[in-house]
Amino acid sequence: MLVRTPLLFLLVLLLSSLQLQASSLPEFADLVEENGKAVVNISTRQKSSSSNSWNKLKEELGGELQIPDDSPFNELFKHFLGEGMPRQKQESTSLGSGFILSEDGFIITNHHVVEGADEILVRLSDKRELSAKVIGSDEFSDIALLKVEANDLPVVAIGNSDKLRVGDWVLAIGSPFGFDHSATAGIVSAKGRSLPRANYVSFIQTDVAINPGNSGGPLFNLDGEVIGINSQIYSRTGGFMGLSFSIPVEVAMDVVKQLKKSGTVSRGWLGVYIQEITHEIAQSFNLDKPVGALVSQVIENSPAEKAGFKAGDVILSFNRKPILDSSDLPPLVGRVPVGSKANVNILRNDRKMILVVKIEELPSESQPIAAAETKPSSSNKMGVEVIDLDEDSMQALGRGVLVRNVVPGSVADQSGLVAGDVLLQLDRKNVKNVADFRKKVAKLPTGRMIPVLVHRQGSDQFIVMKITGNE
Prior knowledge:
The protein has four domains: 38-148, Trypsin-like serine proteases (Thrombin, subunit H, Beta Barrel), CATH 2.40.10.10; 157-262, Beta Barrel (Thrombin, subunit H); 272-358, Pdz3 Domain, CATH 2.30.42.10; 377-466, Pdz3 Domain. β16 and β17 (321-322) form a beta hairpin. The chain is an alpha+beta fold. The relative contact order is 0.08. The chain is built from twelve helices and 26 strands. The longest helix is centred in the N-terminal third of the chain and has 21 residues, at 4-24. It has helices spanning 4-24, 29-35, 53-60, 72-81, 111-114, 249-262, 279-284, 303-307, 329-334, 391-397, 411-414, 434-442, and strands at 39-50, 88-100, 106-109, 119-123, 129-138, 143-148, 157-158, 169-174, 182-195, 198-206, 218-220, 225-233, 244-248, 272-276, 293-298, 314-318, 321-322, 341-348, 351-358, 377-379, 384-388, 401-406, 422-426, 429-430, 449-456, 459-466. The strands form four sheets. Strands 20, 21, 22, 23, 24, 25 and 26 form a seven-stranded antiparallel beta sheet that branches. A six-stranded antiparallel β-barrel has the order 1-2-3-6-5-4.
């Protein structure tokens, strides 16, 4: 008995440990049962007419397909490719998910789920199928608001995605590949993710299994509240690979509010081009660490120009919200109502200041750059040959010299400067012309990183050069 007692004791400890681990895992069954009722399947149909293959082939060849009437191939082509046959109607379908916002039938989903749809069919959890109409749809946020004619529908509770923490458990319900009301769970992997062509959304990244058909469905927290709308996945195969992205519910509800009111969405516009602050750029601007958004260009007559913004300003916070990465800024600006004022904390020439800007909206235009016929200037210190701008380009930009040639292996070459760039600033000082360029290059400090503002392909950006002592 004395030998068996320690073994029995260890067995009891092991069982207790396993029970403790099991009890610490979240229970999703009640959450799914309660909230799955408000999740819907969305199917769409898009009708399009297509020409016969014969005419389509001729169109693709630019109308250059010429076969003589007496050719033995003429009738063969007509027979197999169908010249003279009527245009055929083709129908494409897509599947997605959504969830019910109100008892009278307002439903939220993704813009890309219903984009271009001629017919939208919503299937409820009780198997009813209802025709839906689009109240409004917003491509930039990938949010669409639908309406079905019904009453006393089950609805979801809206939570607060700002309270989410990395590591929190979350649950998705949707219709992957058409399998209605499929539930998958995981954790929040990251917050504030920026994705290409989605500047106005800071996504929630999770490892929840999301597949085609989940788009537009809800992401729940453990309290059964919607904190995100499933939108995108990162995949090399078309299927789930552990990287899923959801639109924060605050962003979605802001869009829904506007769509419900007017069917469209208006966004705030600051009027600056920004770029990420790398470690090298941070050193050149005397920053302790690479945080903030670097203003590379201020658009003419924009809210930013009217407020006094300048190229080289580092935006540290917007309306008291810190800007850690450049991607943090666009969503914050976009959510500010047009006509409202915002306080922007910036760093300029190593000095902090606050600018007050009245938010507007609208894009800008860029102009091509041409060179004037002037004698080129070459600088061994940078390894770049420059010439003056022509009159039109100088009037458009107001400063700068055009890069005519970059010496291979030079400081300029290593920094990424290329022929066709326009040098606007050296070490945060404007370059007026070739003569001014020579003077400024001669005074550049050696051995440290300096910021160089260039105009490239219609927009301005900073690059960093480390000037050597070679003359």
